[in-house]
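To the wet lab folks,

You asked to see what we're planning to order before we commit. Fair enough. Below is the target structure as tokens, and below that is the sequence we designed to fit it. If anything looks off to you, flag it before the synthesis order goes out.
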């Protein structure tokens, strides 16, 4: 990559790091095996601790085999204590992860109990602790658990998940263990340290995807935007530590880890959701918003029998980028717009910059093969200071480069 915007990777040199992985008792414990595999593959050493309940779900043999290390299970194991006392164990790693964190482990940690190896480690450690809770939805929603979780967060522990979905117990709701890839990403970010999170404490608003403007209850006008570039930018900003609100039109994409997603349909809903997400330090407007909507959508389904095609009249939609650029004191310090052009890319982008009142325009030539709806993007960064042409790269790499430039600009 020729451009300095693409110097990623160096910040995430974590291959000599060590994680102490406490595996609690729950159906989801099997996912800790996959997490172990992912960490080892990334060059992170894993020292496993298996609770008594955890050992009912996964065996020490699987866990130890994947970790390539001894599995610690008992606080009062004389051999273990002789080899490595529990205090030393609790400090032997760069990070302690609890996966899955059961209601019991959470309660013990929140109250400083130390009756077994796992809870003693959590009390004795001076390292960052990350917990990925998993339990039945009613247990998760119980005030006692919520109180304990709030306490642990106040104590500085990082929580990953739980996710919402259907659970082994047959119920539906929050309580599912976050996916191993998501926990893995959170661990890698935590291991990389504060230098890798230059946007920590900063708020970001991102719009993405198309809008859908109804004609009648079953029909509407939309466009082919996949939302991928916007979702990748939201993910990259969150990866650098920002608190991200992603306002998404109708797309078929999973929510990036750590991102707050608000689903909308119309341009007007997108504007309202964007304004509600302010104040923010940066706004990135990637959505392909419909320029026009049907003046008054029909309340009932239009019938073909009712004489000929309907006469539709259109009115202009609000311009979200221009509106947010013009917000008074709540205006983000940095407002970034996008432009898809077919000719005179730079000139059109620069004109758009002043017309919309934003700070940067990221422009691309959509006549380039493979850009629209494809995996790659080749962009121009147009600012008030000048124009940069970036090398063609995969959309997630472009997203990371944009996020890094945003971090530089807000520093
Ligand atoms: O005017 P044009 O649609 O080319 O501008 C594109 C930029 O403006 C994108 O950043 C897009 O997200 C934003 N936009 C908007 N609201 C609109 C139209 C465009 O936020 N109604």
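Sequence we intend to order:
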């Amino acid at each position: 990559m020729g451009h300095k915007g693409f110097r990623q990777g160096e910040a995430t040199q974590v291959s000599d790091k060590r994680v102490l992985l406490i595996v609690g008792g729950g159906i989801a414990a099997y996912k800790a095996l996959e997490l172990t595999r992912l960490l080892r593959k990334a060059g992170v050493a894993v020292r496993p601790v298996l609770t008594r309940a955890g050992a009912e779900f996964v065996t020490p043999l699987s866990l130890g085999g994947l970790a390539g290390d001894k599995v610690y299970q008992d606080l009062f194991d004389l051999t273990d204590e002789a080899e490595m006392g529990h205090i030393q164990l609790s400090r032997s790693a760069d990070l302690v992860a609890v996966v899955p964190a059961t209601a019991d482990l959470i309660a013990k940690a929140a109250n400083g109990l130390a009756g077994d190896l796992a809870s003693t480690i959590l009390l004795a450690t001076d390292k960052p602790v990350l917990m990925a809770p998993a339990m039945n939805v009613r247990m998760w929603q119980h005030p006692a658990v919520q109180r304990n979780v709030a306490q642990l967060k106040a104590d500085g522990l990082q929580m990953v998940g739980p996710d919402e979905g259907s659970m082994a117990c047959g119920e539906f709701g929050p309580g599912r263990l976050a996916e191993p890839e998501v926990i893995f990403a959170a661990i890698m970010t935590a291991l990389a340290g504060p230098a890798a999170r230059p946007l920590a404490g900063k708020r970001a608003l991102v719009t993405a995807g198309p809008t859908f403007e109804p004609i009648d209850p079953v029909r509407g006008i939309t466009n082919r935007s996949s939302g991928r570039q916007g979702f990748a930018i939201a993910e990259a900003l969150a990866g650098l530590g920002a608190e991200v609100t992603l306002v998404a039109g109708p797309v078929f994409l999973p929510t990036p880890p750590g991102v707050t997603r608000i689903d909308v349909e119309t341009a007007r809903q997108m504007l309202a959701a964007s304004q509600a997400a302010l104040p923010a330090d940066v706004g990135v407007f990637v959505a392909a918003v419909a320029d026009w909507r049907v003046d008054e959508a029909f309340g009932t389904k239009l019938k073909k029998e009712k004489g000929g095609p309907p006469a539709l009249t259109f009115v202009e939609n609000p311009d979200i980028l221009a509106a947010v650029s013009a917000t008074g004191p709540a205006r983000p310090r940095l407002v970034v717009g996008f432009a898809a052009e077919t000719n005179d890319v730079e000139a059109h982008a620069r004109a758009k910059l002043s017309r919309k009142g934003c700070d940067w325009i990221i422009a691309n030539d959509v006549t380039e093969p493979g850009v629209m709806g494809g995996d790659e993007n080749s962009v121009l960064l147009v600012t008030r200071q000048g124009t940069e042409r970036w090398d063609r790269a995969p959309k997630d790499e472009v997203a990371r480069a944009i996020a890094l430039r945003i971090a530089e600009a807000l520093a």
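Structural context that might help your review: Residues 207, 267, 285-287, 289, 317, 319-321, 337-339 surround cytidine-5'-monophosphate (CB under 6 Å). The CA atoms of residues 197 and 240 lie 4 Å apart.

Thanks,
Computational group
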